[in-house]
Design brief:
With 265 residues, the protein is of the alpha/beta class. It folds into two domains: 17-196 and 252-260, no CATH class; 202-249, no CATH class. The chain is built from six helices and ten strands. The protein has helices at 48-60, 73-83, 103-113, 136-145, 157-167, 210-225; strands at 17-19, 26-31, 64-68, 90-95, 147-152, 173-175, 178-180, 235-239, 242-246, 258-260. Strands 5-4-2-3-1-10 form a six-stranded mixed sheet, with helices on both faces. Helix 1 (48-60) links the parallel strand 2 (26-31) and strand 3 (64-68). Helix 2 (73-83) packs across helix 4 (136-145). The relative contact order is 0.20.
Length: 265
Amino acid sequence: MLKVELLKDYPPEPGCYLIGNHYSPVTVVVLLNAPYKELPSNVDSIPEDVELLMRVSIETGAALAGTLQTENVGIEKIVANIASNPNIRYLILCGREVEGHNSGDALRALINNGLNEKRTIIGSKALTPYLFNIPLEAIETFREQITLVDLLGETDQEIVKKAVWSCYQEKPTKFLDYTLFDSGAYSEKAKLFRLAMRVKHPEQIEKWELEEIVEKLEVMKVEERTEKPMKPIVKEKLVDEKLITIGNSHSHYTYSIYFEVTFKF
């Protein structure tokens, strides 16, 4: 069975997750609820039930187990980290849907439907399911590489444990309506995918701005190839006759941390 050595800087994107066995074929995404527009940096702590689902997943044998709150940058980070590890072939989505964000629905829609020409997840119920910062190659790799095990709404640790266990069996194993087993790595060589963070606050983008944003992203690609300097896309507005810039801070993502946990299998 093919297993691939990962590159030195894996995982490429920070986030609120635990790291387990790099050669495991499964990752677990636990939805993290917080009021809409309350950023991860303002969440005082991870709810105990969410943390337990993460830890149980790692202890059972998952490669990664982490949270998802936002339907844009949060999903992009998940895509980058999974596409950078070809050993991962399953994504288990569990936990209660994120109120206001519908991030679980957005992730499921991305896997099933992909993006349209405006970098918007097709068929998503989320308000701002815009993936501006992740390379399209990473999205294509991610969608081809993984199979979704859809447990959206599920919080039972035993069910999640059984799902994780089933994914790394050598022989096809029945789990609910799925037949799961470890088929080996998706490709023979790992490649790191990173976020460009050219649109730092996609949640502030209005639908009527999408076409202009996508056009600017294309211009940035050309500038990158010609080695011209690039600037992040920001929104500007006039407040009390003073021009201010929105999106020049990384505070939205300062909550992103990870813990590495070592287990023997």
